[in-house]
Amino acid sequence: MAAHRSGPLKQQNKAHKGGRHRGRGSAQRDGKGRLALKTLSKKVRKDLSRVDQRHRASQLRKQKKEAVLAEKRQLGSKDGPPHQVLVVPLHNRISLPEAFRLLQDRDTGTVHLNEWGSTHSFMLLCPHLKHRWFFTAARPGDLHTVLDMAKVADTILFLLDPLEGWDSTGDYCLSCLFAQGLPTYTLAVQGVSGLPPKKQIDARKKLSKAVEKRFPDDKLLLLDTQQEAAMLLRQLANQKQRHLAFRDRRAYLFAHTADFLPSEENNLVGTLKISGYVRGQALNVNSLLHIIGHGDFQMKQIDAPVDPFPLNPRVIKSQKDPGMAMEICATDAVADMEEDLKVLMKADPDRQESLQTEVIPDPMEGEQTWPTEEELSEAHDLLKESSKVVKKVPKGTSSYQAEWILDEDGESGGEGNEYDDVEHEDFMEEESQDEGSEKEEEEECETMTTGESVCDDLYDEKVDEEAEEKMLEKYKQERLEEMFPDEVDTPRDVAARIRFQKYRGLKSFRTSPWDPKENLPQDYARIFQFQNFINTRRRIFKEIEEKEVEGAEVGWYVSLHVSEVPVSVVEHFKRGAPLIAFCLLPHEQKMSVLNMVVSRHPGNTEPVKAKEELIFHCGFRRFRASPLLSQHTAADKHKFQRFLTADMALVVTVYAPITFPPASVLLFKQNSNGMHSLIATGHLLSVDPDRMVIKRVVLSGHPFKIFTKMAVVRYMFFNREDVLWFKPVELRTKWGRRGHIKEPLGTHGHMKCTFDGKLKSQDTVLMNLYKRVFPKWTYDPYVPEPVPWVKDEISSTVPEVDME
Questions:
Q1: β-strands 83-89, 325-327: how paired?
Q2: Which residues, at least 6 apart from 131, have a Cβ–Cβ distance to it below 8 Å?
Q3: pLDDT by residue (tens digit) across 474-501?
Q4: Where's the Bms1-type G domain (predicted)?
Q5: Going along 393-536, which residue ranges are E strands?
Q6: What is the CATH class of 487-515+695-772?
Q7: Of the residues 116, 171, 191, 494, which has the maximum number of CB atoms within 10 A of its CB?
Q8: Could you count the other beta carbons within 10 Å of the beta carbon of residue 506?
Q9: What is the pLDDT of residues 195-215, one digit of tens each?
């Protein structure tokens, strides 16, 4: 008799590993040099000893420390750009000329006043501190100027009042600056010496306590004497610099001078020559230039003139008297620029970035051919089969006779009259109850006379009745949207299957599929889309860090020749507005769909509807657009919001030029008086045209007759055809029941519905319908200048009523 032998499918159990755990050496011996696939695909990491790990960590710390010190030494030095300081007075009692007089101390250094635009700027050269500053100023009421100059300023110097700190205009300015992103800042108090000696210490303590809300753990410096101004300059030179991410990866320039040379063909367009110091990154002539508030332009060439404000000016000794020396001032340096002018780089047409912002759509692209006769016959046969209806008929009935036999549903056409009588009785009962409640309210109330104010007529003259009516209507709509989200009334004059023909039903909003390329609008043929936006952004940022760019280095004083610039740019500059240019990264001139996460600003409570025109400050750009609002979720579909709510963050979707995040976002709304109100702040989320914004519409009906799990529902539709059209869509109720339409009853839109449980009489039957929505193409890069914010005007926009 043969012994049993186990087959190849016998279970082989692993042997028990007794004793100590296997160490790294035994694992390497057992592996015999074999490596895992992941280890082979990556670089082999060397296992350093503990001493080598400490040495490596100390080297990295030393490198980072040296990099920070090198950056600190470069700013304001002879090889770097001047230290640009923006002075912002936060109270109307602060004297800006007095502050500039203290900072313009001839003993501290050489002062060069500006020769363009407004008089609120000067260059200060301090050879003994080995530092040079460029001081500019902006009033907090001039919002665009403050925000634009804060984008390029190295330090912001806030001047505070010793008693109040800042007024309402200054507080509004601080809100906008914090939302945009603050660079390095310093707080200085002006006017403490003017207070009585006994009140100075108390005033400083109260001011420090008030300032803690906005600026925690920040010291307050004084600015009343020359010694205090010198201490302030040392503080500005030695403090740690804060970085703004959107400007550190781009080259930018603040224009000190600007000249316009009109073209021969048209005097309104020409070449603009702007001069200033390169900051941020190296500037390449083949990249595009964005002038804030005016658009994108191409550069012809970059010149490298003599620096007009050298830290150590050249000294010329006289041949007759060797002891006599003369320093070359800035005006002499400007006069010698033409002799020492050097062309640094000229644009290469083959390598220069294009100004094309949109794709020119081909109308024949995606055009379908006409179907053949075989395809038409197949479609006709399918239509015939789908139109056949199965009926119960007596034996021997022909197909012609069967067409005249009605269904069971067709015999119930007269039931609508009974329902109408019951509806009329219910309505009469409700009306009688309302009349009784109105009488009770009249008995509870009593009448009283009040005196009229003398200023009523003057107050009414300032009120715009039409604007008041529009605002009241907006408040009503917002209130209704909060109480009944997405609910709409079914129209009586138009069939529901026509009114909501673009909508569809979904089994689940979260999991049901929806193709992002389905039924795209014509505007989507004009925009650009990335195959992988995150990888493109990562690749461009890596090239900025590692690749050396040919062109003007950081700190050089250069002149840019910008072509095809309108004359309005230089006129704007001559009126005193700042001229700021940012160098664009690849693809940033092209149009696409931008998504931004924003939150409602607490200082503004006016209702803001979707698709309402707003003013955007996105990174270094400023434009107008009409955005869509949607929920900020991690799903593939995002529900459309009709109003900008204050309780949660929303995503704003617009057509705009591509901008690589990170970038701050500020949303303003232009009032009827011309002022801009800050309504929301946030950041740029992504550039993604495939992000689906789904609009929901909720149709509501009311249970009329309730059985165990069935009910007759009315008022959702008003004709039989609509009920049959929307029969496949699932129903839900406000109390959590789910069901579907079984059949229509009568011709007045009543329908028999089944649910997964018994309905309550006070419940409401709902039907959700969805469609995808897209933003409007209303992008406009030209934003009108706002009316300056003044304290009186701010208070007049929100009138206060005296109740005494």
A1: unpaired
A2: 76, 77, 83, 233, 237, 311
A3: 666 777 666 667 788 888 889 999 999 9
A4: 81-242
A5: 487-488
A6: mainly beta
A7: 191
A8: 18
A9: 887 788 888 888 888 888 888
